[in-house]
Design a protein that fits this description.
mainly alpha, 72% helix, 0% strand, elongated
C-alpha cells in the first residue's frame, strides 16, 4: 500500500519530457529577450562595446538592414539559449543550488567573450549578463519542476 502511494506520488510529481521541453523553450525565449535588450541598452549607454549584433558580423553582409540583422542575432542567441535550457531541464533540474548555473554561465561567457576582449567594462558587463541569464534559467526551471504543488 505504501509503495503504491509512493509510486503515484512520484508519477504526479515527475514532469514529462514534453513539459520540460516546453518550459525550457519558454524560459529561454524570455531570457534572450530580456538579456538581449539589456545587452543592447548597455551598448547604447556606453557601458559595453559588445552587443548581440557583433556575434553576426562575420556572417551578415553589411548592406542588410539593421532590423534583419537584429532578428538574426536574436534567433542565434535563442537557439544557443534553448540548447542550454534544454540541457539544464533534462540533466540538472534536480540540483537546487545556484552553483551549476553560475559555473555554466561563466563557462559560456568564457567561450563567447572570454578574457581576450580588451575592454574591462565590456568584460564585466557581459559576464554579469551571462551569469544572470544562466541563474534565471536555472532557478526558474528548478523551481518549476520541484514545486510542491506538482
Amino acid at each position: 500500500m505504501v509503495k503504491r502511494r509512493r509510486r503515484l506520488r512520484r508519477a504526479e510529481n515527475a514532469a514529462t519530457a514534453k513539459e520540460r521541453f516546453g518550459k525550457a523553450l519558454e524560459v529561454s525565449l524570455v531570457a534572450v529577450l530580456l538579456f538581449g535588450a539589456l545587452s543592447l541598452l548597455a551598448q547604447a549607454l556606453g557601458w559595453s562595446r559588445l552587443s548581440l549584433l557583433d556575434g553576426l558580423d562575420g556572417w551578415s553582409r553589411p548592406g542588410k538592414p539593421l532590423g534583419i540583422r537584429l532578428l538574426g542575432a536574436f534567433l542565434v542567441a535563442y537557439v544557443l539559449t534553448a540548447v542550454y535550457a534544454l540541457g539544464y531541464a533534462l540533466l540538472l533540474v534536480r540540483i537546487h543550488t545556484p552553483w551549476p548555473s553560475l559555473i555554466l554561465g561563466v563557462s559560456l561567457w568564457a567561450l563567447v567573450v572570454g578574457w581576450h576582449y580588451p575592454d574591462l567594462n565590456t568584460r564585466v558587463v557581459t559576464l554579469s549578463l551571462f551569469v544572470l541569464a544562466a541563474l534565471m534559467i536555472g532557478a526558474t526551471l528548478a523551481n518549476e519542476f520541484s514545486s510542491p504543488e506538482r
